[in-house]
Amino acid sequence: MASTALLHVDGLTKHFPIRRGLLQRTAATLKAVDAVSFAVEPGETLGVVGESGCGKSTLARVILRLIDADAGHVRFRDEDLFAASEARLKQLRRDLQLVFQDPYASLNPRMTMRDAIAFNLLIHGTERDEARRRADDMLGDVGLDPRLFGARYPHELSGGQRQRVNIARALVLGPRLLILDEPVSALDKSVQAQVLNLLQQLKAARSLTYLLISHDLNVIEYASDRVLVMYLGQIVEMGPATELAEAPRHPYTQALFASAPSLDPAQRLARPPITGDPPNPLSPPSGCRFRTRCPFVMPTCAETAPSLREIAPRHSVACHLYTGAE
């Protein structure tokens, strides 16, 4: 039976060998993404959150086959992306687009904004004049007047304006799924709000689906319908955004939300919510990878890795505290 999910990720794994010495032998392995499984329903925004180095950006690139996976499958509209030929993958990428983190580094400094957006259309066979016309329309859709910004170069734009161009470049092909890799992390707070509001408007107007990657809990909570929490390459909790914000279950998720800064001076933290240093990702702890920093650690945590299990409708946790929970 066909799945209703627009994107279905099953057991996705990506390990990077660390080679050393004259013979470049594998000395260690970095488990950037380790058996990750989830689904994204049409029209929803799934937020992916975690500390830097937890595997969020690698996950995005493996999904799009910008990096080859070691194991697992990614299905888009019930079609296996990893089994698709290069020609078919090119067609599928019209429906799967990525917005990069750095709005300046992802733009060609020698291309005008009009040409940068039109380039996506040109490589898919659109005539040059038509591509430029659609690029101008797309500039208008993201709030930039094409008469003012179409002929400008990246260095002539602010960070927020460059990110609007990157969003326009991703949307000009008419995709169904947009993967947003830290889309506002390089922007100041006022511009972040403008870009997030723009993304919400475009989602409603174009019936888009988002996979939103961020380390900023405020961004995730504001824009996401569901949230996926990652720690050292694995999912530790996944559920509705409101539930995770109000009652996070996994100790790591609890610590993440507790560490979010508050504007109320009476709510200042007396002690850090997470103790200890992050473990070496080349040699993660046995069993539960969070156990070395967990206040609720038990002997079984060192012996067995907890599986991701559903504890409430659409809410799953990988923690031995909930073993046997209904």
What is the number of helical segments per DSSP (H or I, 4+ residues)?
Answer: 11
CATH class: Alpha Beta
Low-confidence stretches: none
**DSSP strand tally:** 12
Q: What strand line-up does the widest sheet have?
A: 6-7-8-3-9-10-12-11
Please give a structural write-up.
It is a single chain. The chain is an alpha/beta fold and 326 residues long. The protein has one domain: Rossmann fold, CATH 3.40.50. The protein contains eleven helices and twelve strands. The strands form two sheets. It has an eight-stranded mixed beta sheet, with helices on both faces. A four-stranded antiparallel beta sheet has the order 2-1-4-5. Helix 6 runs parallel beside helix 7. The longest helix is centred in the middle third of the chain and has 18 residues. The protein is globular, with a radius of gyration of 21 Å. The two termini are 27 Å apart.
